[in-house]
Amino acid sequence: MNTHPEQDALAADAADPGRRAEFLIPPAPAGAPYPETAYFAGNSLGLQPRDAAAAVQAELAEWSGQAVEAWFAAERPWVTYPALLREDMAALVGARPEETVVMNALTVNLHLLMATFYRPEGERVRILIEDTAFPSDSYAVAGQAAWHGLDPARAVVRLPAADIPAYLAAEGGTVALVLLGGINYLTGELLDIPGITAAAHEAGAVAGWDLAHAAGNVPLSLHDWNADFAVWCTYKYLNGGPGAPGACFVHARHLSGGADPALPRLTGWWGTDERVRFEMRPDRDHVPAADAWQVSTPPILGLAALRAALAVHAKAGMAELSARSRRLTGYLESLLAPMSGGPIELITPSDPARRGAQLSVRVAAGDAAGLAGRLHARHGVLADVRNPDVIRFAPVPLYSTYHDCWRAAQALAAESV
Ligand SMILES: Cc1ncc(COP(=O)(O)O)c(C=O)c1O
């Protein structure tokens, strides 16, 4: 049973309130003991910032008022709208502004960047991924290997993350690309991004990162860490909304010489220099920026919502978020730890330096989906299940509360017996 007094949680919230007021909190299902959902699924879909609707509405008004003219004549001309997100996005991941671009969706960006950076040649053909990689990444690397005429079963090597440095030391000459999740979606483990990047480079391989669960969650220094490329989505910790545009990073050293015209790239008109884009020439002008990987017309309404969300992050700053994240996740851990080894097992590293705002629990017996369903229906505690037996709790420092954590522990204790 959770013996921590509710008053302690409420007092912690009063002392350390976060920015919940800037978000819309879903109501709890009827019959739950509190009116608001205790929302722990922000690592799947972040909550809606209060300002998002007005930001989208403003661009809808440009559309109704000016239609096509808005591409150039809107208050925020649509033709340069993606650039409005650049500084905030770059700051979040520790990149120079020209190293990031907001575009497409994560897996699409992964393919676009692998088209450039996965160059199998001779013996060096392998792609290393984690054995618990997110399925889309597994499919994407298999698809790339096959597209190069290779057998994915041989070209793709799946390993526990802990074994990757040793594999690189022993077999590095066969590895073309190391592609890992910065934070593992299932366990919530934060990998040693700079260390693995350095080991990949030492072996002569490219280091690419899927930061879906890391961007906006933990401090990142992609430029200083020398990552070759990274991709992430913006609908989780970045609160950009369902299917919000993704983002990517290409290190400055790959952008030299006009985005290095020699680098192969899958191209489209949005990747040409915006100053000549509408000259409608058949050849492109390369720009020395991640923008060179853009292909198509950007989705302005999605960008508008994301811009509002990034503004909240920019106000908070990663340092504030990360500090509150550690306090909140540590508090949830202290409530769940007494149950670990019993009805649940905590599978996220307990070292705060090796995780972000997620605690995953393996349900010892019975049906994890059924348990998660009861947590929601009876207690208004919304966490998500990753089959077959893991429930993930993400106390998001922007809007989650200590009281949410207390409710989660109460509900788990009540439903696990
Ligand atoms: C780690 C990880 N990689 C990739 C994806 C796929 O993202 P998308 O559907 O935006 O391509 C997800 C989605 O949740 C994810 O969690």
Automatic annotation (TrEMBL):
Modified residues (N6-(pyridoxal phosphate)lysine): K236
Reactions performed catalytically: L-kynurenine + H2O = anthranilate + L-alanine + H(+); 3-hydroxy-L-kynurenine + H2O = 3-hydroxyanthranilate + L-alanine + H(+)
GO cellular component, one term: cytoplasm
Protein EC: 3.7.1.3
Residues that coordinate or bind pyridoxal 5'-phosphate: L106, T107, F134, P135, S136, D137, D210, H213, Y235, W269, T297
Listed Gene3D superfamilies: Aspartate Aminotransferase, domain 1, Type I PLP-dependent aspartate aminotransferase-like (Major domain)
Its job: Catalyzes the cleavage of L-kynurenine (L-Kyn) and L-3-hydroxykynurenine (L-3OHKyn) into anthranilic acid (AA) and 3-hydroxyanthranilic acid (3-OHAA), respectively.
Family: Belongs to the kynureninase family.
Top-rank EC class of the record's enzyme: hydrolase
Pathway recorded for this protein: Cofactor biosynthesis; NAD(+) biosynthesis; quinolinate from L-kynurenine: step 2/3; Amino-acid degradation; L-kynurenine degradation; L-alanine and anthranilate from L-kynurenine: step 1/1
Name of the protein this chain belongs to: Kynureninase
InterPro entries reported for this sequence: Kynureninase, PyrdxlP-dep_Trfase, PyrdxlP-dep_Trfase_major, PyrdxlP-dep_Trfase_small
Native species: Nonomuraea wenchangensis
GO molecular function: kynureninase activity; pyridoxal phosphate binding
Subunit structure as annotated in this protein's UniProt entry: Homodimer.
Any one GO biological process: NAD+ biosynthetic process
Co-factor(s): pyridoxal 5'-phosphate
Keywords (A to Z) from UniProt: Hydrolase, Pyridine nucleotide biosynthesis, Pyridoxal phosphate
